[in-house]
Amino acid sequence: MVTLNDARRVIAAAETKAQEIGQPSNIAVVDAGGNLVAFARMDKAWMGSIDIAINKAFTARAFDISTEKLGELSQPGGQFFGILASNHGRVMIFAGGVPLRKGDEIVGAIGVSGGMKDQDIALAEAGARAF
């Protein structure tokens, strides 16, 4: 289970990393059902990345895989090619979505959007480590 306190801790860690690298971002945390638990839009983060962050978190939980890895597997010729058209368009194959684990169990996910690929990954991983 991902509690609100858990989600706040995850977001705080991602925000700290964002401040370290100077990249304001949108950060979302979802529970095991892919439902939004908490969201933060840092000052000056792109408005267009709000839905992307939420959908990255949803995607990472829906498929229990990082969105970076799913993106690699969904390229032409890949086993998940075309997956981004599923789930009413909610599937994101941009890097920045990472499952949250308690032991071996995936209980939620974090999604980050607002920077370049490596920046979004760094923030999401920082948040996941804080979980």
What's the total helix number?
A: 4
Chain oligomer state: single chain
Largest sheet: 4 strands, antiparallel
Average pLDDT, to the nearest integer? 97
Q: Please give the radius of gyration in angstroms.
A: 13 Å
The helix content, as a percent range, equals 40-55%
Which strand order do you get reading across the main beta sheet? 2-1-4-3
> How far apart, in Å, are the first and last alpha carbons?
11 Å
Unreliable segments of 5+ consecutive residues: none
Short description:
The protein is an alpha+beta fold. It has helices at 4-21, 50-63, 67-73, 117-130, and strands at 26-30, 36-41, 97-102, 105-113.
Explain this structure.
There is one protein chain. The chain is of the alpha+beta class. Helix content is 40%, strand content 20%. It has 4 helices and 4 strands. It has helices at 4-21, 50-63, 67-73, 117-130; strands spanning 26-30, 36-41, 97-102, 105-113. The chain has a 4-stranded antiparallel sheet. A hairpin with a 5-residue loop joins strand 1 and strand 2 (36-41). Helix 1 crosses helix 4 (117-130). The longest helix has 18 residues, at 4-21. The chain is globular and about 40 Å long. 50% of the residues are buried. The mean pLDDT is 97.
